Amino acid sequence: MNHKKNLRRREFLQCSTAAVIAGMGGAFTSRAAADDSIEEAVSKVGVLPRRKLGYSGREVSILIGYGGLTPSLADAAVRCGINYWHMSNRWTGTGVPDVILKNREAHYLQVIVDRVGGNHETGRIDEESHYAFVKEALAQTKLRYFDDMQFHFGYHNAAEVKNNRSFIRAFERLKKEGLVKHLCLSQHGYAGNARVPGGESAAEILTAVVEDGLYEHAQIMYSYGEDPAINRFLEFARKKNFGTIAMKTARGIGRMKQDAEFMSRLPEGTAPHNALARWLTTASNIDLAVIRVQNLAEFAETYSGAGKALRAADARAIDLMMARANRTACRLCTECQPHCPQHVPIAEILRFERYAADDGDLRRARALYAGLDCRADACVACGSCMDHCPQKLFIPERLAAAHVLLSRA
Ligand code: SF4
Ligand code: SF4
Question: Within this chain, do residues 378 and 398 fall inside the same structural domain, yes or no?
Fold first, then answer.
């Protein structure tokens, strides 16, 4: 690694001479600074351990990457051994990073496929459209195949798992053509969702998926805080050799990092993203996890915790983070949903709030919020939802704050 670093510096010195001549010194200086930051992040993280994912037994890095990571972050991640990429079709706009394309066989690339003719609540599962979508994504990304085909948002209930085989048929046709290899899904909860008649919880649907035996692994909303139904499912999944990946993991972290008083109370030597990565990868029942990061500093803080033991100080940090997040950030369990007479999509709105407040993705959060047919200002503050929230969130207040954040132009 030192050799590589020295080489990069030598290349930089050679280039910078030419650049000064050409009047482009500034651009090369920035490039060299970026290279040094990547080196620093990579050396702090090291190489991540791997674990088997699902019944195919593929060895996958315990934290996975995702489409949308900038080239610098993807470069750093590859050098730290990350070999699975969630949403790799999201690179259609910018192109799959060279560092992955050059060594295609070393990576597992996943395509996410949505319902059609509506959103994840109102859309339908359609074999022809899903088949065509994957082919188009392959043409646009110039990848020869996707390793994993993921049903994005998942099924609405266990009956749909059993009776609607359209997604599976699209997968099987693509698999025969050598264009996809493994079947997976991400699963949200739909119990009590006014737009999804007969909707069930994520744990109920996932249990049906595992019993059905066709899917190999699933992404699950999972973070600190007790969730008995999901914990039971994780134990069941492990017994059945069904792979699990935690998503939506950084609950409330963006907000807590803005709170200087809270940060000052964390035990010395701990940091929220680092403690989260330690907890997810060594002290939970989940197989793998995806944790969103915004820059190289956050990458280094997060990924350097992967596979490292949860020290006593980290456990105390997790307790403090959980207590704070329980007051501010929804865990998206949807327990409140059946109890709202106004049919306010509480979990959807608070999911978008998390994108804005915790992931720093305000633009996407506002676009999603603008697309809702019922927004937070429909809440009449009756309070009937609150008794059903395991976090005892003051939901009307949270919704009002989300409305202000998400409806500004
Ligand atoms: S407080 Fe608002 S969100 Fe909760 S049940 Fe009443 S109207 Fe629905
Ligand atoms: S508001 Fe509470 S009950 Fe509703 S989804 Fe969020 S955490 Fe669950």
Answer: yes
**Helix, strand, coil in percent for the chain, rounding step 5:** 50, 10, 40
Domain count, the chain: 3
Note the pLDDT tens digit of each residue in 374-384.
Answer: 999 999 999 99
**Distance from residue 393's CA to the centre of ligand 2 (Å):** 7
**Per-residue confidence band for 21, with pLDDT thresholds at 50, 70 and 90:** very low
Residue range 209-240, pLDDT digits in tens: 999 999 999 999 999 988 899 999 999 999 99
Strand partners, 66: 86
342 lines ligand 1 (CB under 6 A): yes
- Any idea what the CATH number is for the domain that residue 133 is in? 3.20.20.100
Q: Which among 328, 363, 381 is the end of a domain?
A: 328
Pairing outcome for strands 243-247 and 288-289: parallel
Identify which of 281, 252, 285, 272 has the alpha carbon closest to the alpha carbon of residue 314: 272
Question: Which of 222, 327, 331 should be mutated for ligand 2, with most atoms under 8 A from CB?
Answer: 331
Q: Which domain holds residue 12?
A: 2-41
Instruction: Say whether both 34 and 125 belong to one domain.
Output: no
Q: With a cut of 70, say whether residue 26 has pLDDT above it.
A: no
Shortest-distance ligand to the CA of residue 380 = 1
pTM of the model: 0.88
- Ligand 1: residue of 330, 334, 353, 380 to mutate (most ligand atoms within 8 A of CB) is 380
Query: CA 30, CA 243: separation in Å to the nearest integer?
Result: 41
Instruction: Kindly give the distance from the C-alpha atom of residue 243 to the centroid of ligand 1, in angstroms, as a whole number.
Output: 36
Same domain, 215 and 343: no
Output the CA 377–ligand 1 centroid distance in Å. 10
Task: Tell me the mean pLDDT in the region 343-363.
Answer: 93
Tokens of 5: 């670093």
Q: Are residues 307 and 180 in the same domain?
A: yes
